Amino acid sequence: MSLKQKNKKGPYPQNSEYGVVYTKAEVVRFMLDLVGYKGNENLSGLGLLEPSAGDGAFVEEILSRLIASSRNHGFHLSQALSGLCFIELENTTALELRELVENKLNPELGSINSKAWAKKS
Predict the structure, then answer these.
(1) 6 lies in some domain
(2) CA atoms within a 13 Å half-sphere pointing along the CA-CB vector of 56
(3) How do residues 17-44 score in pLDDT, each as one tens digit?
(4) Three-state secondary structure of the chain
(5) Full domain range(s) for residue 102
């Protein structure tokens, strides 16, 4: 079951110690637009911190916009990834988030191993 499928019930156990807030896709898009993180802009030198990545709503949109920006502005995507940091404390969700990142980036970069740069906090 993917993070998106779990989102309906929540990816955390019911008696989890973590508070869970899901951000709707339209809110994610609005917030990224508001700070100027758009695929038609050159995002190669920008960094972003996602301190509570959860089901990956921001992560997926951030990566989509970074991929579009790399195509539009001709920079290598792998270099721009160093400016991103996604944090998730819950172990199961963090592993699923790594899978989401790999699935999003593998078509662009070939086979990547997110364990090399996705660290457990």
Answers:
(1) no
(2) 22
(3) 667 778 899 999 999 999 999 999 999 9
(4) CCHHHHCCCCCCCCCCCCCCCCCCHHHHHHHHHHCCCCCCCCCCCCCEEECCCCCCHHHHHHHHHHHHHHHHHCCCHHHHHHHEEECCCCHHHHHHHHHHHHHHHHHHHCCCCHHHCCCCC
(5) 24-37+47-116
